[in-house]
């Protein structure tokens, strides 16, 4: 299991650190260019993973990143997300 921060700016499934991707043996799929919030362009390697999400298997793309693991909006599609926006606040997900 990988714990990840919700990133509403990430439109894909997941972003994982490169060492995590390597340790999981995820296959490389393609390279993509994304525009960051500051309008800079960054090239990312994309890998394929089989994810267990809400008890179901899903095939999804994983972005290689040097940041902490991130959960993207594509994985959260179909869920209600409630966030207590305070330090250490609770995050609740509910399938719609």
Task: Give an account of the 3D structure.
It is built from two helices and eight strands; from the N terminus they run ββαββββαββ. It has helices at residues 18-24, 73-76, and strands spanning 5-6, 14-17, 28-35, 41-53, 56-65, 70-71, 79-83, 91-95. The strands form two sheets. Strands 1-6-2-5-4-3 form a six-stranded mixed β-sheet. It has a two-stranded antiparallel ribbon with strand order 7-8. A hairpin with a 5-residue loop joins β3 (28-35) and β4 (41-53). The longest helix has 7 residues, at 18-24. The chain is globular and about 35 Å long.
Topology:
Blueprint: E1 5-6, E2 14-17, H1 18-24, E3 28-35, E4 41-53, E5 56-65, E6 70-71, H2 73-76, E7 79-83, E8 91-95
Question: Biggest sheet, in brief?
Answer: 6 strands, mixed
Which regions are unreliable across 5 or more consecutive residues at pLDDT < 50?
A: none
Approximate shape: globular
The total of beta strands comes to 8
Helix percent band = 10-25%
Instruction: Please report the number of helical segments.
Output: 2
Tell me the β content: over 45%
Main structural class: mainly beta
**Spatial extent as radius of gyration:** 14 Å
Compressed to H and E, one letter per element, the order equals EEHEEEEHEE
Placed side by side, the strands forming the largest sheet appear as 1-6-2-5-4-3
Mean pLDDT: 92
Distance between the termini: 23 Å
